[in-house]
Every structure is written in C-alpha cells, then in structure tokens.
Amino acid sequence: MNEFEKDVQSKGNDALESGAGFVWSFLFFSIIFFVAVIIKAVN
After folding, report:
1. Residue 9 has what DSSP assignment?
2. Transmembrane region positions (predicted)?
3. CA atoms of 39 and 31, how far apart (whole Å)
4. Which label site among 7, 20, 29, 34 has the fewest CB atoms less than 10 Å from its CB?
5. CA 19 → CA 6, 10, 14, 16, distances in Å?
6. Ramachandran angles phi, psi of 28, nearest 5°
7. Is the sign of the CA dihedral 34, 36, 40, 43 positive or negative?
C-alpha cells in the first residue's frame, strides 16, 4: 500500500460525489439553455 492510500483527503463515497457533480453541472447547463431560449423567444 502506498502513502496516498494511507492518507486519503476525502473518505466520502465516490459515487455520491460524482452524482452530485453530474447534477450540479446538468443544472448549470440547463439554466444557460433556458436563459438562451427565453432571450430568443423575447427577440
């Protein structure tokens, strides 16, 4: 076992963290998309 496996920075569940990252990025791009749709509808 190497030194990085002994002293990990985060002991959280990787699946939960990757899922949260996916959700936040999906929401971010969805907001950008809907703002663009609204601007296009107004013009």
Report:
1. S
2. 20-42
3. 12
4. 7
5. 25, 16, 8, 5
6. -60, -50
7. positive
Amino acid at 37: V
Angstrom distance (rounded) from CA 2 to CA 12:
19
Q: Which two tokens stand for residue 10?
A: 């985060």
Please name the residue that has the structure tokens 């609204």. Answer: 38
In the 8-state DSSP scheme, what is residue 8? Answer: -
Q: Is the pTM of this model over 0.85?
A: no
Phi, psi torsion values for 23, nearest 5 degrees: -65, -45
DSSP letter (8 states) at residue 35:
H
